[in-house]
What does this fold into?
Amino acid sequence: MKIILTGPTGHIGSNVLEAALAHPAITSITAFSRRQLPTSFPDPQNKLQLIIQSDFTSYSDETLEACAGAEACIWGMGVANMETGRTIIVDSTIAAAKAFVDAKVAGEGKKFRFVHLSGMFVEKDQEKRLWFMNEGRKIRGETEVELMKMEKQHPGALVAYIARPGGVTATNSFFPALLEPLARFINVDDLAAKMLDTAINGHDTQTLEVDVLRNEGKRLRKQSRLDNQ
It folds into this structure.
């Protein structure tokens, strides 16, 4: 299976890339990045094609041709500040989903899965008064709404999944796993495992909250370890 990935140099996206490179069901990865990858990613099977892209709201015919055959996209781009938040979170996400679906990168008559990395405390009501993280929560809410609108506009061609992690801890974090549910935290490896599995197999609900992501991610990683014994 071929997938598209964005944000491969970030905290979450780099872990998704590492998981995808190691996953037997993934045969090809087209990754979009604003900069070169570090040299630490093992790719013995030459699965990875990296495309350096500065503008994620526009895709050339040549770029879309490189995506041909992809059945899913994991949209893992992060944002450092809200000054660029709307462009990166809303505009880029919607433009990419539309470009991939309009170009029929998955193939004629095939459904394309779009797994979007959102966040906790998302607010879809743009008029609601919020007491904290007002702009970021509404921007993510607007993105989710627009993605679902696009899905309705492309019945049978697009299915969108929303991942809503809480605090994301590092691979070797000292934070106790038993306390993760109380703090609404998730280890980045568990998040990466579930996002990748959703791209491959879908999920029975389209919005995946942090508890589902964590529990499913841990289950998938445990199963992977057993399979490799």
